Amino acid sequence: MSIEFKLQALKENVEIVEVNAIKVNVGDIVTKDQPLVEVQADKAALEVPSPAAGKITQILIKQGDQVKIGQLIFVIDPASAGTASTATVPQAPAQNTPKPTQATAVAPTVAPAPVAVTASSKSTHVTLANDDNKVIPAGPSTRRIARELGVDLSHVPGTGRHGRVSEDDVRSFVRTNGSGGSAGGSISVPPLPRFEDFGAVERQPMSAIRRATAKQMSLSWSIVPHVTQSDLSDITDFEAFRKSQSKGPKFTISAFAMKAVVVLLKEYPVFNSSIDVAGNQIIHKKFYNIGVAVDTENGLLVPVIRDVDKKSIVELAEELTSIAERARQRKLDSKDLTGGTFTITNLGGIGGTGFTPIVNYPEVAILGISRGRLEPVVHNGEIVPRLMMPLSLSYDHRVIDGAAAARFTRRLAEMLENPYQLLIHA
Question: Are 384 and 221 in contact (CB under 8 A)?
Fold first, then answer.
């Protein structure tokens, strides 16, 4: 009997994924847990394993497809696997036992409807004592956002399967009703006009990375009261130092900025924090993981380099090169994209005289770097051409005051102006 393999839930609140690559062909004999397809779930690339050994008889997806959770993607004939087919026989009764979590992950691959949804719902329900102990199906990230926005999940209509409440449901509720659940003040998003009435249009589905970016930016912009502090750094000496280094990894301004930022995060710990609105607390993090925005042909990715305070500039330069390349090859996993405490985005290789980056929530600050250009500057009492680089620091004004942001940015500019002093901290 053939096995209909339906895509199981891969990440919390991810209902649609994009197919990056199909790793098998029709007629291939596969083993249990062999990767069959690589998909893009939000900004992470994930491999989907085979639920059983057998022969691939049908492939119902192709590269670039947008696939929904629960959609049929492969048909596998276990009888064609020879001796491997015997390994798949015991799997059927094991799926009905409540014991192993791995079994529940396999369940959606052989059942007509994905059992993983049920398992996920059981593990992420939250009981609300203030609503007659009503069970609300919602994931941890959704509950966190609801707490931060002061939203009672029992009042939020869930648009997911079985009434599951998503992050978008919470944000939509806030836009329409306000955080307290009462009407007033918030503006709902109006429907789009029918553009076809005015001329020809082309509709393209948003990629997984673009959907994840849109969701994160909407969340950040709707929650964080942004202010951007600008300054200039004289990097003339830095450029001379960088060009003098002919051996080892390529030194970039981003690698030096990462090291400088960590020094400043220790001096100004509020920039390495998050705000807990529900608990009226500021969470100060004692670790220093820096996210670095990477421009790829598929969209913006922000891989995280961990423990920056424990690494030299040489190590940071090497790791930055490596992780940026993996980002462009879609080889990042979830761990590469989570746990950041501060973000740097560098547009200097493209151009511009400044910009206002959006804080990467739940962080409270982000540094934007623009292209340096020669400008006439008074230096040692004379007007001379110096290479001036714009810095743009956006921050959460609920946590950070303007004076602190100005001090942070000025101190950063001075540190970048003296790369030899910065090497002391390496």
Answer: no
Per-residue pLDDT at 106 = 38
* Tokens matching residue 301: 């990715």
> CB–CB of 116/51 below 8 Å?
no
- Per-residue pLDDT of 95-125, as tens digits, reads 444 444 433 333 333 333 333 333 333 333 3
- Helix (H), strand (E) at residue 379: strand 373-379
Give 81-122 as a 3 state SS string. HCCHHHHHCCHHHHCCCCCCHHHHHHHHHHCCCCHHHHHHHH
Please list the ranges in the chain whose pLDDT falls under 70: 12-13, 80-134, 148, 175-189, 424-426
Do residues 108 and 70 make contact, with C-beta atoms less than 8 angstroms apart? yes
**C-alpha distances out from residue 71 to 51, 96, 125, 417, Å:** 15, 21, 24, 55
User: What CA–CA distance (Å, rounded) separates 96 from 110?
Assistant: 12
CATH topology of domain 226-423: Chloramphenicol Acetyltransferase (3.30.559)
Pairing mode, strands 35-41 and 16-22? antiparallel
Contacts of 78 (CB under 8 A, 6+ apart): 1, 2, 3, 52, 53, 54, 84, 85, 88, 89
Report domain extents, the chain. Answer: 3-111, 114-188+203-223, 226-423
Residue 158 in tokens: 């869930």
Contact 361, 219 (CB under 8 A): yes
Catalytically annotated residue among 125, 226, 397, 425? 397
Q: Does domain 114-188+203-223 have CATH number 4.10.320.10?
A: yes
pLDDT of 44 reads 81
The reply to whether 162 belongs to the active site is no
Asked if residue 417 lies in contact with residue 409, where contact means CB atoms within 8 angstroms, the answer is no
Cα 168 to Cα 138, 202, 391, distances in angstroms:
12, 26, 33
3-111, which class in CATH? mainly beta
- Burial class (CB within 10 angstroms; exposed 0-12, middle 13-18, buried 19+) of 88: buried
- Give the pLDDT of residue 83: 46
pLDDT at position 104, please?
A: 36
Q: Which residues contact 329 (CB under 8 A, 6 or more apart)?
A: none
Contact 105, 99 (CB under 8 A): no
Its pTM stands at: 0.68
Give the whole-number percent of the chain exceeding pLDDT 90. Answer: 50
Beta-carbon count within 10 A of 332 CB: 22
